[in-house]
Amino acid sequence: MEDEVVAEEVELPSVVYAAPFIEGMEEEGDAQAFVAVATIPDPVLSFLRNFQQAVLDRSVWELHGIYEGAFNKLTEKFYQKSSWPSPDAVAGVFTDEDPILLILYKELYYRHVYSKMQPSLDDRFNSYANYCDLFNYILYYSTEPSDLELPNQWLWDIIDEFIYQFQSFCQYRLKLSNKGDAELESLKERPDVWNVLNVLNVLYSLIQKSCINEQLSVSKNGGDMGAAAGDFGSRPLYRMLGYFSIIGLLRVHCLLGDYAMALKMMENVELSKKGLFARVTACHVTTYYYVGFAYMMMRRYTDAIKAFVNILLFLSRTKQYHTRSYQFEAISKKSEQMYALLAICVSLSPQRLDENVHTLLREKYGEHMNKMQKESEESLPVYEELFLFACPKFISPSLPRSDGSATAHAPTMHQLNVFLAEIRQQALVPTVRSYLKLYTTLPVTKLASFLELTPEQTRTELLAYKHKTRQRRWEGAGALLDGEPAGPADLDFAVRGKAGDMIHVQETKPGRRFGDWFIRHIGKFDETIAALERSGAVGKQ
Asked: Does the pLDDT at position 24 exceed 70?
């Protein structure tokens, strides 16, 4: 079959097209296909015809309206609890033989299945096969760049959904107890489906084809991106897919627990400037969430706080626009997760925040933060609760053991244990800090009596304080992994004296930002006046 040849063109390890699982569907005859088309509602038929025309015309603006508007409205009206018409039925509606039409429809079809229903094993296999066809079409269909044009939002969603379905399959594959013998046999026969090497290879191939890293490097040094783009990278389709694949690799490496590699993927992306990621809100949020999470797991709490505060401020200033988006719920959930992660980071590395963010943080997690900043048995369960709520769903790249000992939660529990081990190592840091803030000089013996430790144990805890509060900090230039080691910005100390028995404390209190205070209250005053004018309580001037 031609389809099998096309699928094998992807330069991935062991990629095999899933035709054996669906080929029987092609032999049911024209009569059943006619019946299937007849059951499609007229508005959906009209949508499919408009979809076909927009794709063939390469009309990005029309596709934008169809993708973000019409598809979601028809889903709410006809397919909230059922799947869209099957690809076989829709093939009878399309009058053009361009393979990309059905490939794009299948991408929407299976995404809807994952979103609204419980995908079967065949759905998972078929969706993977369709992604193989899609990336084959883009990467290897011709020696020339494809003239296909898609909206940026859809391009991001393709990469985002591709990784989500890979993540979902990895977790599904570990749940052996609720699977029958036939299902287990199918999984054993297809180890290539949603294989981690295949997924990584797709993302790296898109980056390489688009020359996006070369383009970003040239742009970072003040040059013209177009000079390094090449034939493929100059096309918006390849440039944006390559760029979104960088963000995708950031996410995948975080899911695998390789945080240094995750940040290394971003070495040519300038977070200090408004990059291409800002064109799609979901991509913008995903970028900062995973950058902040990677920093937190690498004990770079100050950099994590900067990342979370940056995106949370952006979301608070633009929230009126997000309420109209079909992704509003996903963005809101990610925002709540970032507030939880911010509460963890601020508890481990206290520092001044933007007052708007700080106010919301205290409203949401004030009680949690008070418990986390105390050296007691109460703090660890709070850290665990917030971590499990806010962390991504980690995955294992390896196949499950036949004895069923691995579970879908095992990768997450492993990362939780790594995180809690770090928390236990700095359990006394908040207590030591609270005492040091009360003095300018303090004998080691006196601090030891406060901590109920011996002087030698106290010196050990002071060394641990120095070590755990010293972090590498990114200064807004260079790669995200770069940075100079620095101690806490507001409090430092040195142990001096002939016997090394006197602690000298230096505390720096940053000045209050009066400008921000006035700007915030002027804004509140303007909102109050506008509300009164709308209610008619005061006349407009």
From this structure: no
